[in-house]
UniProtKB/TrEMBL annotation:
Nudix hydrolase domain ranges (all copies): 10-144
PANTHER family from the UniProt entry: 8-OXO-DGTP DIPHOSPHATASE, NUDIX HYDROLASE FAMILY PROTEIN
EC number: 3.6.1.55
Molecular function as annotated in GO: 8-oxo-7,8-dihydrodeoxyguanosine triphosphate pyrophosphatase activity; 8-oxo-7,8-dihydroguanosine triphosphate pyrophosphatase activity; 8-oxo-dGDP phosphatase activity; 8-oxo-GDP phosphatase activity; metal ion binding
Protein name (Swiss-Prot/TrEMBL): 8-oxo-dGTP diphosphatase
Enzyme class label: hydrolase
Cofactor needs: Mg(2+)
Chemical reaction(s) catalysed: 8-oxo-dGTP + H2O = 8-oxo-dGMP + diphosphate + H(+)
Length: 145
């Protein structure tokens, strides 16, 4: 088994992007509706996914966004919790969230999502988010004020 070596990636880390129309003047964010598994289908999330063994977190995020949405992004700062960098999420996983903006491509639901939607900052709460994402949304609003 891997998992204890110095270079082993933390298998519990999920990386995700809060993709805004503009990092300088954020007014709308790209929201993604899950298509699977059945118990999570229909809920909204930040696009991203699990870091693979021996993959750097930022590289994992760029890979996931290319696979799932067909876009390249510029990453801004990480949005931290009060305690540290990573948010507690489903299944005892942790999630690191970066602000981001699209640098090439037009986001399409290529994989894992039923729908993508650009949502105005003040209307983000109206979607049916995964429960662990609610406090992250509050921090995102504060970080983009
Ligand atoms: N991408 C993403 N996952 C989230 C969010 N909030 C949250 O609790 N999660 C959970 C749902 C999943 O249990 C887990 C992410 O796993 P995933 O299935 O999307 O990862 P993946 O694309 O790498 O897929 P796989 O390797 O499991 O097939 O994190 C969020 O905002 N975005």
């Amino acid at each position: 088994m891997t998992g204890t070596g110095a270079t082993a990636t933390d298998r519990r880390l999920v990386v995700a992007a809060a993709i805004w129309d503009s990092l300088e003047r954020p007014s709308a964010m790209l929201c993604a509706q899950r298509s699977a598994p059945p118990e999570l289908a229909g809920r909204w999330e930040l696009p991203g996914g699990k870091v693979e063994p021996d993959e750097a977190p930022e590289a994992a995020l760029h890979r996931e966004l290319a696979e799932e949405l067909g876009i390249k992004v510029r990453l801004g700062p990480v949005v931290p919790t009060a305690e540290g960098a990573d948010w507690p999420i489903l299944h005892h996983l942790r999630m690191r969230v970066w602000l981001a903006e699209v640098t090439s491509g037009v986001a399409e639901a290529l994989q894992d999502h039923a729908e993508l939607r650009w949502v105005a900052r003040d209307e983000l709460d109206d979607l049916d988010w995964l429960d662990p994402d609610r406090p992250i949304l509050r921090a995102l609003r504060a970080a983009t004020r």
